[in-house]
Each structure stands twice: as structure tokens, then as C-alpha cells.
User: Fold these one by one.
Assistant:
Number 1:
Amino acid sequence: MVDTLETTPTFDKPLGGRMGRKAAKVPLKGQELSERKFARKLIFPALVVAILITQIPFIATIYYSFQDWNLARSEERSFAGFENYVAVITNGAFLPSVWATVRIVGGSMILSLLLGLLVAVLLDRNFKGQALARTLLITPFLVMPAAAALIWKYSLLEVNTGMVNWGLGLIGIDPVAWNTDHPALTIVFTLTWQYTPFMMLILLAGLQSQSAEVLEAADVDGASSLQTFRFMTLPHLRTYAELAILLGTVFMIQVFDPVNIMTNGAGDTKTIAYLLYERAFIGQQIGEAAAYGVITVIVTIVIATAALRTMFKIFTEEAR
Amino acid sequence: MSITAESTRSQTTESAQPERSGSSRFTRRKVTGYFVTLLTWVLVFLFFFPVLWMIVTSFKNEGQAASFPPEFFFTPTFDRYAAVFERGMGLYLLNSLFVAVLSTVVVMLLAIPAAYALSVRPIGRWQDGLFFFISTKFLPVAASIIPVFLLLRSVNLLDNLWSLGLLYLGINLPLAVWMMRSFFAEVPRAVVEAAQIDGASYNRELWRVSLRSSLPAPRPPR
């Protein structure tokens, strides 16, 4: 168990700023020591379950990635060394898929975070029907990804019968062939629509956890709402935004249903997850697909860490 | 927001003086308030529209559903619903419900103590622990499904709701740990300390104090 923990990269900065001070090394007294032991017992069940359910498949994936194994000829299975990895990197499909993933995930991430923040701020006011508005806004997140992809592809973005083109027609804009001309954009629309409520939920929790007295004090001291927002609310939201960005990025990198349903990977939308599916279930190359999986884990760790660090920077600068 | 900003400031800086021109400022503030509320509802409508449209379409027959320009007024029909349930939708719903409820209950029982040990009373190296949980989500499901499929096949547990629940458990546990941790992190330390001084046992402190104060609660109006 300890080994698994040690292989994971360490953040040198505390993830949730406020708990950082607990890390200071103080000799523990008897009672504290027993509390520590109890805390370990608390985390133990979750840790064991997570390791059993997720690490066994992961280790198997690493093992498969070193095997030459095609499901169509499963008796000819043999050790392949790094052949699968070489194949992944040299076959020319990998880098474009990383680029497609970065564009789609990055675009949807930024859009849904900004929209989520806007909606969270708007919903943090008191107005009639606040609860209803919040419930209606959460619904996109509750729609199954496959269903969301179908709604967007056929009901909304279809060139001849879609509601978006109908709406554009009302204000005199010619129909746009979204699905064929802008495939990447259609996926960004769908993802943004699904993840804005997710961002909004996390950021709204952050907004509502602000102490009312402090905000009142700022108001009395003559701070404008804009100043309060910029210098008090935004820094306060930091932990929440970090959480939203990290989870959002990790979820969106895995995105599969919209790509499969809306574009089949056409037009710069072949993300890593979709490429992996293609290799494993269409190409039946278990070894190569596993190698994609292992590389995806590495890429995800890099992207998620970079996203976190950038956010740290932006927020510390804004807090000044 | 930025428009309200100005009026808020002018009102508060002059609030020491008797409010002479207060009424016009008050109306201005009210008007911006209505405007912001209107904007909120427009956004809400835009976000909800795809779902609304899906619901509306489900009451149309096939011809109406495909017609263009869209038909807003039609006689609703339940034919499509009848067709879906004839194809066994009821059983599918029950399956989903069973797996979702089962896995959520188990996930929360595991995640709440873990999140507590990672935030309110952090164990040593809690950041590594936290990162471990999220790192289990980095492997695309498409990749891990192959070993999972082969494993479950070898122990004859394919086509089984319990194994599906087990998978959901693995998928959702990290998310739950992270969400609960960020809520726990916002519980004021004073509350926890007060509970300790009052002699709450560790167990009680965990389930009552932290959980209760981390539940989303409405904030009094500013």
C-alpha cells in the first residue's frame, strides 16, 4: 500500500490552502497519536477498496501493454517488449489525438468554467424562483452523456431540422452545417452544456460558504461589489475552482460517448480515449490499446498537474 | 454585477448622511436587480431548453418529431412511451436504480470517513492519499474495461448486477472522496475544537459535527 502511495507524484503545494498548516512537524502527544491511528483506520477501507478495484485492472493493463496480443488471433500471444509503445508513438495517430484532446477539453473546460462562474454568481442572489432556476440548471449534468450527444446532434445541431439553425434563421442567419463543417465545435458545445452545471455546483458551494459578516464588513468599509468580488470572493473560490478544474479535466479527457455518437472521430475530434477504443475494439489489438491506456494515464497526470499549477498562479496573482 | 457595483458604493459611502436622493438610487438599484434576474432566467432557459425540447419531442409522433419548422402545438401522444416500456424499459430502470442506490450507499460509507481523515484531521502525507484517489480516474474506462472484462469472465461474474455495482463503486469512490473533502475543509476548525472540548468522541465528532456543518445551508441575505 505504501508503495502505491510513493509512486504517485507529490504536490509540493497544499491542495487546499487552509489545511496546509497542519503539515508542520510537531512531536505528537499520546492522545494525538491515538487520534492519528484512528484517522488511519478511517481511510483504510476506502483505500483498500480503491486499490483492489482500480489498481488490479491498471496493473493488468500495464502487463498487457507489453504483450503482442490480438483478440482475433488470441493463441499467438507473446511478449512484445516496448514494441507496442513504439507502434503507438510512430504510427502518426497519437500526436494528432493529443492535440484534438487538448483543444476539445481545453475549450470546453474554459467555457464551462466561465459560464459556471457566471451562473453561480447569478444564482447566489435572492430572487423569486431561485430554487427552481437552480434545479433547471443542474438538469444537463443529469442527462446521460449518450443521450446528451443524441439531443445535440439530431435535435439541436442538425443542419435541416435542428433547433439551433431554426433559431439562427429567426434572426436572419443562414443555416450552418454544424455536424459536417464544425465537428469539434459540436463536441465542445455538448461538453460545455453538460459540465457548466458541474462547475456551477462546485463554485456555488464556494460562494455560499463565504461568511456573510466578512462581506458585510467589506460593504460597510466602502468596497464596491466588484472589488469585493475580485479581492475577496475570487481568492476564496480558489480551492473550489481547483477542484472543479481538476475533476473536469480528468472527466473530459475520458470523454467517449459524444465522440462516438456525434463524429466517430472525424474532423480533428479523434481524442485519445476514442483512439484507444478504436484500437482495442475495432482493431482488437489488446497490447497496443493497453499501451495507449498507459500513455493516457501519463498524459492525464501531466495535463491535470499543469492545469492545477496554472490555476494556483492565476489565483495567487489575483489575491495580491 | 458591475452595474450594481456603482450604486452600492455610492449608497454606502453616503449612508451616514440622511438619505435625500435615496429614492431614485433605490429605484435604480431595483431596476438593475430586475435586469440581472431577467438575465438569469434567460440563461436558465437556454440551458434547460435541450432537455425541455427532448421532453416535448417525446410526446410527438415520429412525423411531428422530424418536421421542420418545428411544431410547437400538437396533440400529445403517449405512444412512444408505451413502445419503450413494451421493450422492457421497466426492468432496465429497476436495474439502474438497484445498482445506483447500492453503489452510492457503499461509496458514501467509505468516502465520508476517508475524506474526514484527509481534511479535518489529516493523516500524515494526506496530499499523497488525495492524489492517489484522483489518479485512479486517470485510466480511460475504455482501457480498463478489457482487463475487467477478462477478470470477471474468468470468475463467471459477467452479466451480473453486483459486479456492475462493484465497478460503479470503483468509478465513483474517488469523486466522492474529493467532493466530501472539499466540503469538510470548509468546516471552521473552531466548531470541531468546540465539539472536542465538549467531550464528543472522535466517532461522534466525525458523523455529527462535520457532516452537519458541511451540509449546504442557505445563507442569510446580505
Note: The longest strand of chain A covers residues 67-68.
Number 2:
Amino acid sequence: MQGRLPMTVAYPFNDSANLDLHESYYAAQKAPGMLRIQMPHGEPAWLATRYADARLVLGDKRFSRAMAAERDEPRMRSGQLAGGILSMDPPDHTRLRTLVAKAFTVRRVEELRPRAREIANDLVRDMITAGPPADLVDMFALPLPVAVICAMLGVPVEDRPRFRVWSDNALSTSRLTAEEFQASREEMREYMRGLIAGHRVEPRDDLMTALIEAHDAGDRLSELELVDLCVGILVAGHETTASQIPNFVLTLLDHPSALEALRADPGLIPGAVEELLRFVPLGAGAGFPRYATEDVRVGDVLVRAGEPVVVAIGAANRDGLRFESPDTLKVTAPPEQHLGFGHGVHHCLGAALARMELQEALRVLLAELPGLHLAGDVVWKSEMLVRGPVTMPVGW
Amino acid sequence: MVTMTWHVSVDKGTCGATGMCAALAPELFVLDDAYAEPVRPEIEPDDLALDAADQCPMQAILVSEDGKEIGPRP
């Protein structure tokens, strides 16, 4: 029986200036039930930290994302973000996702691999030409996924400085007021509307053109959905990968024997990427709460209809009940079914693309920079949804 | 009149247990620890099966009618 609700603790736990998993997660995993947490804004929520609970909440139809729009959603920033594919449930979500899923299939992504490899090689060559030390973020980790997603979507890569600012704003948790946040989003929408207008006049072989056709000819997409989908793909299409490239490099530098194993046998890199996706807790904290649409038992907690649950993916990926010695990085024995890309209907749309980019990034960095090392202090992002270096000076 | 049936299968070699199909269409797919499986291999025509095949991140779902592949849709 569930008695009174347990005491509520302040959340998030993680320090934004490292990649550690906070000890509170380990304590939560050992304790029965789930924690009750209070995020900086919104109503209290349950926090799922175990693998089985995470998979249940993310993958069960009885949990809704759309319900968050009607509630005081637990969140990091004051303004409540409405709309977007991550705020939808099937069948609306299905309609939108079907339109874009084709562009992100494993097969389509493999067609992009040679181009991504070429871009990665060029970027490293530029780093070598400029000489050490170099900022790995600015010279490699950011421009690689930006170039790939720009080519895919049909956004001019020269505009990177402009959408870098909007993109940072979109993922910032508290640097902006609600009004500034909204203004930044409108600017980005305006920018995208301009690009869409250009694509209408001059259709191209890119994802934006395909989405415009779905709107104009198929009537399957509203104008605002079209704009927000393009904005979402552009932001999500590079920020996370741009963070994980330096995060993975840092983690490997912390694990010299793993690094050596990958240098000796680059064939291990795809498996290592899976293990790193499991091992590195990217999020500063969990977000995007799921609301129970009816009473649902999660482990030994009965989540009541209308209650939100947030899922700590980074913790679930280190759950000792699911993964053997979860805090050891095992690049030669990749994990099965990690939750690094989430789970269920909102499983990362760009998972195949991210995998490919991360593999190509590690491949070229390890091959071309045999003495890769840190050459100064890492400056960390703060008050962002994802963790990672802002700047990371490296030598080789 | 012959009742049309569709055949649904999940390729275990490519299934990544992303949970997409079982979350989208629990009446058609079930996820165990490692793989998803169709609840029944033969179903009545149901667009949800095609949606699941389209959206599977691993492209592991195949829907066919009379031996002809109809999902994922081109």
C-alpha cells in the first residue's frame, strides 16, 4: 500500500561542470519506490531512476506527453514550452513523425556517411594546419554535425553563427526570461519561414523540400508544424552530437586503456559508441515529464492518473540490475538496449544519424591525432539541458 | 468474399528494442527484454501496422499482403 507521498527533494542533482552521475541517483536506485522531486518550476513529480521503470514509463501508451500542456509541467525554465513533436502523443505524433522518419532511416543515413567522413577529415586537417592548441568544440565537434544537418535539411551552413545563438537559447534553462525565450524562438521561426519561402520558389533535393510538399500537396502538415519541425530538426540535429563528441573524447582520455584498444582496432568504434552512449549521462537533469492517463504501477509505486513522472535516462543506463558493473566503461563489450536515445514513440528520430556522426568523429580523431590530449581547462556549459564543454583546448 | 490478412514480422537481427512499435501499437507488438515481436503474425488490415513499420528506427518491421511487401511504405 502506498501511504502518504514521500518527502519531496530538489532536482536536478547533477553538477553541470562534469560528466558524473550524482550520488543521489545511486541512493534512489537502492531505495524502494521512486523519489518525489521538485524541479525549479512546475508541480512535483516522480523520478524514475531504474532501467525497468524508465522503460515502462517511456514505452507505455498509458503515459502521455501531450497532457503536460494542460498542467503546470515540471521543468527547468520558467516559460512552459508548448508545441513541438516531443509534446505530442499518437496519433498526432505519428502523423508528424511519419513525414520525417524516412529521412532518418539507417539506410538513408548510410548514404550520408562518406560525406560526413569527408567533412570530419577536412576539419581535422584544418586543425592540424592551424596547429595546437585547438578548441575541439569550435573547430570540430560543432561544425561536423552542423554541416551534416544543414545539408540534409537544406539550411545554408554559413548561417551557423546566427542559429548557434538561437539554438543555445532554445536549450538554455534559465539564462533568458520567458519573454526573451519566446522572442528568440520567434526569430528562429522567422528565419526558417524565409528559408521555406526560398525552397517553395526553388525546390531542392532535401528534407525541407519534402516537408513542404507534405504541407502544400498532401495537407498533412500545418504551416506552423512545418516551421517548428524544421526548427526542431536543426536544433536537435546538432546540439546533442556536438556535446557528445567532446564528452566522448574526455571520457576516453579518462580511460587510457579503452582509448588504446580503439586506436589498435578501429573496428571496435561502433560498439564503443554504444557503450559511451550508455555510460555518459548527457543530461544535466531529466526533463519532458510523462503524465499517467490512468493509475499505473511503476515498480512498487502506484502512479495515480494525472501525476507526472520524469525519467533519469543517465541513471537508468547505470542501473546495476540491468547492466553488469554499470560504472565501468567497457568499450570491447558493448551494451544491449541502452536508453541513450530514449525509448518508445519519442525514441530519438536522429539516432542513426547521431551514431554515424559519432563513429566518424572518433574514427578520424583517433587516426589523425595520435597524441590527442587536453591542453588547458575545459569550460563547461552551464544552465543548459545537456552537459558538455563550451570550449575544450586540445593538443596532439 | 475472401478476408484479407496481413503478415507482420520483426527481424530480430535488426530490432534494437527501441520500444517504438510496442508503445505505438501495443495491440500489435509486444516488447520483451531484448526484442519486439508481433502479438500475432497474421492480422486484419490495420494502418497502425504500417505506421509502426514506417517509424521503426531500425527498420526491423515488415508488413506484407499476399507475399507482397506493403510496409514500411516507400
Note: The mean pLDDT of chain B is 93.
